[in-house]
Hints:
By secondary structure, the protein is of the alpha+beta class. It has helices at about 30-35, 45-55, 60-65, 70-105, 170-180, 270-280, and strands at about 125-130, 150-155, 160-165, 190, 190-195, 200-205, 215, 230-235, 245-250, 265-270, 290, 295-305. Helices cover about 25% and strands about 15% of the residues.
Amino acid sequence: MNWTGGEADAKTGTGPGDAPGTGPGAGPGDAPRTGSGAEPDAGSGAEPDAEAESRTAAGPESRAATGTPDTVADIAKGARHRGAARRAAGALAVAAVCAGLTWTALALTGTPTDSKAPAAAAACSYTATGGGAKGLGLPVHDPARARPYRAELVTEQGKVVVEALTEAAPCSTTSFAFLAGKKYFDGSTCHRVTTRGIFVLECGDPAGLGTADPGYFFPDENLDGATYPAGTVAMSKAVPGRNGSQFFVSYADPDFRMQPDWTPFARVVSGLDVLRKIAAKGTEDGATDGRPKEPVVIKAVTVRRPAG
């Protein structure tokens, strides 16, 4: 099957969905392991035909009431329309299955609806969920005060420094700086590392479970032509258009072109070697996707803005 948008590399011998969870989205206890996040039901395409046939088979009074054609020519025309509808439904079913597989392989949880969520508004919209840490509040994005910054992620296994893409992803970078300033990430454990197909370390949940809700979500942005080579820092999510606190860092180039579904908001400027050493140790159960073998605890995240 041709992977829509994913374009699995022939050299891997498999599509991105063959390994349990081969893309950013949630932690080891998510959809492929628990049964949630199933592929979208493409449907059999029988409903439109059944409804049309029931109207055709009904008596003259039913046809008159529903406006169904009552002549041989009209019935034949209706049959052709039903055939076209059946073929269209079949095509949509195949497309939905392929898209669902691609999304499930990469996002892991949630029911895919539209991987191309609308770009974030210039003013940045943060929608409260009622969850998250008590009293955390919502970020406030002020375009007039937005400035590039670097963030230092100090872990027990080394320091990683990233540079925020404030112009390309203003809402994501504002949120990340807001959470860092609230010490939201301090003491959190990176909950996932992948070592096949895509190569990422995933963090951002204080509980280390990959289910964090910081108390708000915001839309995707910076997706046009997005790619995820080594050093990319991007938002991870379980549902399209609902970004929160979780993010992933690519420590190597992926084996295939990933769909542009995750907002890139920063890039690593130092510490890529730290990420690769973490990944080289593998997962705690030896799988290609799971919790890191040695805990990766973020001791602190410090945002440093340039002077002036």
